[in-house]
Amino acid sequence: EVQLVESGGGMVTPGGSLRLSCAAPGFTFNSADMSWVRQAPGKGLDWVSTIERGDTTYYTGSVKGRFTISRDNAKNMLYLQMNSLQTEDTAVYYCAIRAIKPYGRIEYNNRGQGTQVTVSS
Length: 121
Fold this sequence. Notes:
globular; about 50% strand; mainly beta; four-stranded antiparallel sheet
């Protein structure tokens, strides 16, 4: 089974930056649509961003203009550059393989253990 490994989280003050990384060994990474999702304390899983196999990117509205998703297919790595962080961005962040199921249902699969991002003054 594919094991994704997230890293790069930490604690920053509002306005700060972090870069998350996701190692994705052992599968055809360059043919996968990859996503970042997050889970804030006491809340459900929220989609943050997706980069498709053709490098088209998508962002949820609250992070647009502040976060940048990217990938390095040669290294099987996924990244999320997060700038101008806000307290509302506090969450555990997971990378995932996006799967589109029948009737347009989307799944975010093979999440790793996640990496904690805490934004606090």
